[in-house]
Amino acid sequence: MRTYFHAVPAALALVMTSIPAQAACWNEQEVSAGTIRDFQSMLMVATLRCQVMHIDITGDYNGFLRANKATIQTMNERLKVHFLKADGPVEGQRHYDAFATGLANAYGSRQGKAEMCATVAALQREAAMMAGSEEGLVLLAHREGIATALPEGACGVARTEIAMVVPAAPAGPGGPPSDE
């Protein structure tokens, strides 16, 4: 069950490359934190988009947040620590803010159709069932095609290898059906 948010758009890759490369690559735990933050951003933007279409799925989104609150907070702290260690308190906070904003903005630039709201609501309920499991949330994000663009890349993976996993143009809402 892939939503139309099944991949990070190329625009996000451009946003991420506009952030100056910090000294530290992303370790496995930080990659997971970025993936979960990306997944949360996708769900948040979809919820807001559905609200604009007068389809209320906020209960499902809030259920996802409640069930995963501690994990989401831990992931956000992990992300902040990554940026703060790499760039110091002022620049690190600025880079964290740019990273988080870039994730949401990339999803915000998409078009949405009312049909996607039921799919996203079901995904939010499924994510709530993860009950704080970091591994479960990462698996759901990957199943949905999320491949977060990391400013300086994952440790041990060349930046060009990471860029290759980001699709050039994901299917938009009402676009071609997924490969499932």
Q: What features would you describe in this structure?
A:
The structure is a single chain. The protein is 63% helix and 0% strand. It has 180 residues and is an all-alpha fold. The protein is globular. The N and C termini lie close together (7 Å).
What is the fold's blueprint, element by element?
Blueprint: H1 10-17, H2 28-52, H3 58-67, H4 69-108, H5 115-128, H6 134-143, H7 159-164
Q: How would you concisely characterize the structure shown here?
A:
The protein contains seven helices and no strands.
Series of secondary-structure elements, N-terminal to C-terminal = HHHHHHH
Low-confidence regions: 1-22, 159-180
What number is the mean pLDDT? 80
What is the radius of gyration computed over CA atoms, rounded to a whole number of angstroms?
16 Å
How many helical stretches? 7
User: From the helix content, strand content and strand pairing, which structural class follows?
Assistant: mainly alpha
- The count of β-strands is 0
Largest sheet: none
Strand content of the residues, in percent? Answer: under 5%
Beginning-to-end CA distance, first to last residue: 7 Å
How many domains, in number, for the residues?
1
